[in-house]
Amino acid sequence: MSLFLWILQIVLALMFMGIGGQRLTRSAQQLRKLPWTDGYHPAAIRALGGVELLAGLCLLLPGVLGWAPLLTPVAGVGLVVLMALAVLMHLRRGQRQAAVLPVILLVMAGIVAWGRLTQML
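Given the sequence above, the corresponding structure tokens read:
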């Protein structure tokens, strides 16, 4: 189970660090080109990118460095909430296909949160 959780953590961390990093470094004009960003201020999108980047780091660093292991399941729960909100946003906008990836990421983050929390108890 531990190897499976590590694989999920690495995949999730790379995805969220990449996506979060892009949201932090793209210009406001580039951010507006994304279809889901209508109605959101670029500062809010950048804040979201910061949260995603931080969550990605918290999925990996505690296990790699051997400190604060509680951060990993907390990051997993945070990503579950974030992805649930993303799914709701896409569904409210009628973007059913765009909601598929957040659902997959939500399930992956939930497995990591549950698995790592179970290992701690």
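The chain has a mean pLDDT of 94. Try to locate this feature in the token string yourself.
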